[in-house]
Amino acid sequence: MRLELERRPEQSRLMLFLSPVMAIAITVLVGALVFAVAGINPLRGLYVYFLSPFERMWSIQELMVKAAPLIIIALGLALCFQASVWNIGAEGQYTLGAIFGGYIALTFADGPAYVVLPAMMLAGMVGGLLWAGIPAVLKTVFRANEILTSLMLTYVALLVLDYLVRGPWRDPMGFAFPETAIFTAAATLPELTADGRLHLGVVFALALVVVFALALPTTLRGFEIRVAGNAPKAARFAGFGLSATILFVFLASGALAGLAGIAEVSGTVHQLLPTISPGYGFTAIIVAFLGRLNPVGILVAGLVLSLSYIGGELAQMRLGLPLDVAMVFQGILLFSLLACDTLIYYRVRLVGRQRVAERGDVA
Amino acid sequence: MWLEPILMTIIVASTPLMLAAIGELVVERSGVLNLGIEGMMIMGAVCAFAVAMTTDNGFFGVVAGMLAGMAMAAIFGSLVLGLATNQVATGLALTLFGLGLSGVIGESYVGESRSGLPRLDIPGLSDLPVIGRVLFGQDALVYLSFAIVAGVAFFLYRTRAGLALRACGDNHDSAHSIGYPVLRIRFLAVLFGGACAGLAGAFMSLSYTPLWIKEMTAGRGWIALALVVFASWMPWRVALGAYLFGAITILQFHGQAWGLGIPAQVMTALPYLATIVVLVIISSERARARANTPLCLGKPFVAER
User: Fold this and answer.
1) What is the Cα–Cα distance from A259 to A22, expressed in whole angstroms?
2) Which residues contact A253 (CB under 8 A, 6 or more apart)?
3) pLDDT at site B189
4) In degrees to the nearest 10, what's the CA dihedral of B298, B300, B301, B302?
5) Most exposed: A85, A277, B140, B278, by fewest CB within 10 Å?
6) Strand spans (E) along B16-57
7) Do B269 and A155 lie within an 8 Å CB cutoff?
8) Contact B68/B52 with Cβ under 8 angstroms?
């Protein structure tokens, strides 16, 4: 018995949409298995992980709060992936966004909110954009592999943040803890509800989804990006600058990751710490793929992956599972998705030994 | 004597890079790009440490690390070769999965430590000044890493099987039509890469710093990937590159000891920055970058009937 792949004449649109659903189903099944192995009743485990986040208002709000940065980053990454540009350094661009915006928050702490907050968001976008600009320029000018350069820069970005919060930016009143002063009210994104952590960053995410959903299919830039990814030769022939497209998607995704970073710091963390992300920049890669690189899909996928974080926290509290289980589930989800995506391009058959042998004879 | 400790630490810092990179070189020469080295390496590290602690035997630990790397590689190989999935995305998934799973497995071992692997000691030779301990006082994995590089160099250029492997990497359609089992050759190459990454991880948690720390590989798997590009896919250049990077990594410790007044974070960032610089230099020389790049690198192979 072995698998045999047969290329479909055209990619299956049905499978394009069915594949994420199948992948989530497989992940849930594997999850049940993992719980069983860990000696936890699988049904109880699945309930705590995937359903109990919906029990309380605060955890539903938390779901949206954690989905916001994932969605904002993934919208940008989807641009890159459509153009076949592998920006996997969003975590670093997110961090630089938090640093640039955080600088404004700490320096102009007493300014009026209607000036400070927009300036912070803008600075965050600039920070992310500049950091993404490095691998973009290295790729377009020197042809350096952007996967490695953008990832290396993530490590550097985390060290820059670490240096700042332990060194020059450390709160003098903070008892030597590695953290900056807490942002003033003027530098904090307003909360939307009285009893939760829902903040304006969630609105940013929703607004960006709408803008992307409207702009991508209708603008020339959206078309150029898709052509650059699917048929780079055609793009060159049509006079679309390939380098310009690479720069554009890199800078745009960097700016979005930067915005996500400063929105998260200003809305949720309220200060700079050595760690300001549970790996949003990497999880957003899964969000982009699960959402089919489509803005509305990314909205849904962002909530699904956010659930993996909240579920992980609840599983830690109620079942005593380590937090890293969330990352394991995320990895399994991406594996399953990639496996199911094979069905978009290929028909998969199980071939018995005998048939293989017969075919061998004919050949 | 200041030279000896520096040489000793360079060797220790270079060995995991060399092991991981030489494995990936074979994988890439067969036409497969496995970006999941970091994930395989960290799984190798945690499994090696866990087994060494429970059995109180370093050798079993090393074997466990190698097997863990191979198991991770088998997942990658099944998806990428069996189902022709996107190699970049699958490699990323392997890294995320490995980082998460290693955290789960290692949770109960945080804070424990071992005494390191036994060192080769040849009475007389090991006592020679400066070079004595450097050449004759390392643990077995250091010697093994050089043996593997020599073995890979011999295999790729002097054996028929090595020729077949390179053929798969350069033109899988031709290799298939001559009758080479492309997917099987690639799967074996991927497994070999996993074993090497697992060994590299085992060296990290059993010898480099004989304890388990979450995400202790700290990007070395990615640096190993860059080393393969730096080496233009040639085995001995991998060894050269690994030692160059090992030396840069070591600068951070000695830089702090010499009290240059540079923030620790700047020194820690050096290997990452050096990786970027090296990639830029190598990639901008087009002719050299192209000469040895396996032509089918990263392209899925599905047999047409």
Assistant:
1) 32
2) A73, A76, A77, A79, A80, A87, A90, A93, A132
3) 97
4) 180
5) B140
6) none
7) yes
8) no
pLDDT value of position A360: 43
CB atoms within 10 A of CB B125: 14
Token pair for B127:
């006592």
Domain of A258?
57-320
| Residue A360 maps to a domain | no
CA B26 from centroid of its chain's CA atoms:
11
Q: Which residues contact A100 (CB under 8 A, 6 or more apart)?
A: A123, A124, A126, A127, A128, A258, A262
From residue B131, how far is each of B5, B134, B147 by CA, in Å?
11, 5, 20
Q: Which two tokens stand for residue B299?
A: 């392209």
Using DSSP's 3-state secondary structure scheme, residue A9 falls into: coil
Total of domains in chain A: 1
What stretch of H or E contains A347? strand A346-351
Residue A298 maps to a domain:
yes
Nearest to A88 by CA among A135, A45, A123: A135
- For A81, which residue in chain B has the nearest alpha carbon? B89
CATH of the domain at A104: 1.10.3470
Q: What is the dihedral of CA B86, B89, B91, B93, to 10 degrees?
A: -130
Q: Are A86 and A147 in contact (CB under 8 A)?
A: yes
Minimal CA separation from A57 to chain B, in Å? 29
Read off the pLDDT of residues A168-211 as tens digits, 9 standing for 90 and up.
999 888 788 899 999 999 999 988 887 778 899 999 999 999 99
From chain A residues 152-191, the ones with a CB under 8 A of any chain B CB are: 152-153, 155-156, 159-160, 162-163, 167
Is A88 in contact with B92 (Cβ distance < 8 A)? yes
All residue ranges of chain B with pLDDT < 70 are: 1, 120-126, 130, 132, 253-261, 286-290, 304-305
- Closest partner residue to B35 (CB to CB) among A141, A147, A342 is A147
User: Would you call B279 and A282 a contact, using CB atoms and an 8 Å cutoff?
Assistant: no
DSSP B223-287: HHHHHHHHTTT-HHHHHHHHHHHHHHHHHHHHHHHTT----HHHHHHHHHHHHHHHHHHHHHSHH
What ipTM goes with this model? 0.91
| CB-CB under 8 Å, B268 with A338 | no
A186 sits in which H/E element: none
pLDDT per position as a tens digit, B165-199: 999 999 999 999 999 999 999 999 999 999 999 99
Encoded tokens for A23: 């992948």
Look at residue A47 and tell me if it is in a domain: no
Average pLDDT over residues A41-56: 90
What percentage of residues in chain A have a pLDDT greater than 90?
A: 64
Which helix (H) or strand (E) is A40 found in, with range?
Answer: none
Indicate the CATH number of B3-291 among 3.40.630.30, 1.10.3470.10, 3.20.20.80, 2.60.120.10.
1.10.3470.10
Amino acid at B207: S
Q: What is the pLDDT of residue A210?
A: 96
CA distance B280 to A139: 9
A282 domain-assigned: yes
Cα separations (Å) of A234 from A140, A141, A220, A223, B189? 18, 21, 15, 12, 35
pLDDT at A361: 40
Q: Looking at residue B144, what DSSP letter applies?
A: H
DSSP A305-329: HHHHHHHHHHHHHHH---TTHHHHH
